[in-house]
Fold these 2 entries.
Entry 1:
Amino acid sequence: MKQYYARITGWGKYAPRRVLTNHDLEKMVDTSDEWIVTRTGIRERRIAGPDEPTSVISVRAAQAAMKVAGIKASDIDLIIVATSSPDYLLPPVSSQIQDMLGAKCGAFTLVAGCTGWMYGLVVAQQFIQTGAYKTIVVIGAEEISKAIDWTDRTTCVLFGDGAGAVVVQRSETPTGVLAFELGSDGSGYQHLIVPGCGAVNPPSHEVIDRRENYIRMNGREVFKFATRVLGRSLMRVLAEAGLSPNDIDLFIPHQANHRIVEAAARLMGVPEDRFYMNIERYGNTSAASIPMALCEAIEEGRCKPGDLLAMVGFGAGLTWASAVVHLGGPDESVAVSLADELFILARAKYLARRTVGMVQGLATDAIMAVNERLRIL
Ligand code: UT7
């Protein structure tokens, strides 16, 4: 059977026009620019206007990605939209987006909190690897500003709106997601939650009076979870791909807090400047944050087709996901040899590490057996 790979051939983003700065927030709640910058790294964020609902910003990001990939709407076989803030509870916003793009294909919305787009990328890869589809658009879009309690300083300074998208296409050259991990620990579900307006606590005057239709976050718990999971998950996918942090051209983490990334970089022994950050301009855009960061990193020349990236997301659920990704790009000829080299290198390293691991395992077993025997004697 032929082996297919899911090549990222296009990328795009859309940032709503209205900018809300920390100084604007100082006039709304008891906070300061200094607190927000030092505790989070955020200076400003975008807030979508009435003419920029989730569907519209998604379409703009998808069209930008389609332009880079050089594809038409009729080429799309599937649209995956990761969001926790769709236009409506029903219909799925993915169908609105499919119609607005003029595509004739399946479309679905995927909810995995801030980790949603990473889940979407991995799902797209599966459809392409099986040979089922050739071209998939994966969008991450959020308007968390609509679920924010603008009187709650512990959450309203953190989030922003935006959308990012990639086009993923069938390739016979090794590229795309090389290794991934999807994680979930639902025991922490209450730490990042909109308690009202779901099936457990349906909309009512009481729910609105208690402001339960807004996001509530136990920031400290989510912070602890994120610092625990981020570096470890990245190290696991790197090991699975047979790579070390030094092989990675750029790390693209979910943009939730620069201190979380600092902690992960320290744990991994990687200089912090190898982690791409744009949180100061957009805040935490949830499922949109990684595709927006990927797009900006390419636009700023921080990474390019042929590069090896490591991405990691985390958020509500609690969920997390990480992946080692070879960035293909629209021009198939550019990265072919790089990809070939990379795969030979990665395979060789993987086999070497596996052999060392097996030898270590055998040695440990032998030592334990000797100890056991000495105890008997
Ligand atoms: O994408 C989804 C995942 N989300 C995250 O990853 C977020 C993870 N959590 C965080 O990033 C951090 O926990 C926050 C940025 C949310 C909070 O930072 P922190 O250093 O954990 O602050 P804290 O919650 O421990 O609060 C410290 C103090 C408190 O005052 P007291 O109790 O020490 O008097 C807060 O009331 O800071 C106060 N505070 C603020 N002060 C000024 C909380 N929010 C603000 C604010 N402005 N906006």
Note: Residues 50 and 366 are 68 Å apart (CA to CA).
Entry 2:
Amino acid sequence: MADYDYDVLVIGAGPGGYVAAIRAAQLGLKTACAEGRETLGGTCLNVGCIPSKALLHASEYFEAAKEGGAMAKMGIKVTPELDLPTMQGQRIDAVKGLTGGIEFLFKKNKVDWLKGYAQFKDAHSVEVAGRTVTAKNIVIATGSSVTPLPGVEIDNAGGVVVDSTGALELASVPKKMVVIGGGVIGLELGSVWRRLGAEVTVVEFLDQLLPGMDGDVRKEAAKIFKKQGMALKLGTKVTGVTVEGQGAKVTVEPAKGGDAEVIEADVVLVSIGRRPNTEGLGLASIGLELNARGQIETDHDFATKVDGVWAIGDVIPGPMLAHKAEDEGIAVAENIAGLTGIVNHDVIPGVVYTQPEFAGVGLTEEAAKERGAIKVGKFPMLANSRAKTNHEPDGFVKVIADAETDRVLGVWCIASVAGTMIAQAAQAMEFGATSEDIAYTCHAHPTHSEAIKEAAMAVTGKPIHI
Ligand code: FAD
Ligand code: NAI
């Protein structure tokens, strides 16, 4: 057998790659991870999940403290003053702490960090920073980057037309912000700057926000964001963006055709999706082809068509989510080690971290109906004692179950803590629970999670509190 430098070489140290590398090392495999960024942690820790949550959390406090905000409703009167450099400082500190933590974990687990971008030479060797490194198994975990909008140039340093990375780093609050794309990034980062004082207009090509989520959730999302003061231009396409001085003019027109309109903005955020990172990897040299969406296809154990080459995370099909990438990272390492690593792609929760949060797991009502007969139970957060007491009336929980077997097919929540609530739904579905199983599980009172129990009770028409 050939002699390799490593048993496993992972390309990319995002949540997919760094987790795969640590798990492989834990399983006794000699492991290296190539990463071209200055810090480990990938998109998620550097410019994604973590910095966006740092600003979402801080801006929530700011909004709660505003006149007529949540704090005033509870008898706490303050006049908030925005100190944006400090707010941005704590974002930077959060990133520093967590990316440094991954470096510590690499050292602890004896994972070698190969600093630089890797390119395949053949299926068992890559070049990193001018050095050739060989491995018996190579895992591609190169993640994704922003999908550009044709004809619109992103210039994060200029601070006018930006992507999510630029929108995280703004040095002042824009007076007017146009968000192109009413998906997860647009709504999360649009919410941050709206709370801090920007007038935000979201331009979405489709008739509703948040594609992929349940229909009821999408409709409610539009109502909630409008109520919060966001201007929504649904069914609208952007036909051009021109930068003029310190601002931009965004030309839009109805997606189905009609009169054009120009919206002025100080900042334009382009958030129309992300695409897999495969350029420059030298995939042609190992005979690995991409699918029509530019992704690397794998079989269920994350092996590609090329022997010894595996792939996980945003670069393969499925939702582009950190926890999906992490679970695939564990599974691929276990498969390489000869164990059985599995990810149940039917049960991957998704959360939008606005306020309220929007979360779901499993099938939407629309998809479930296509599959067969279903029963649906719904419960409003307004009737949940804790949400009502906390002045958080928006939202609902919806449980979708198979009409015949009662097995839970999907759960959707809009609530202040929907992201936390959805975990129990995912666990129940993973164990093949019925709506009756959830309805008869004792839930602590008073908690938002009781709304999941009541929605499950509503599947058979018997909730208590409505
Ligand atoms: P990535 O995290 O993209 O990491 C890939 C790494 O590979 C990068 O560091 C890159 O530098 C490196 N790389 C690429 N090519 C090479 C090469 N040739 N050689 C060496 N290194 C290479 N998901 C959630 O679940 N929750 C959230 O709250 C959330 N918030 C987000 C907010 C924003 C603003 C963005 C942009 C994304 C967010 N995501 C969130 C998505 C999440 O960040 C991704 O799904 C996740 O990071 C994917 O992990 P990954 O390991 O596949 O790739
Ligand atoms: P997205 O796919 O969530 O939303 C993009 C939106 O842009 C869609 O609604 C789409 O219809 C719209 N769109 C596409 N082209 C358009 C055009 N020309 N004009 C107007 N609208 C257009 O993508 P987004 O928000 O960029 O996020 C990328 C990925 O990052 C997400 O898919 C998600 O997986 C991940 N992410 C996850 C987060 C979380 O889990 N909380 C937070 C942020 C990102």
Note: The CA atoms of residues 2 and 136 lie 8 Å apart.
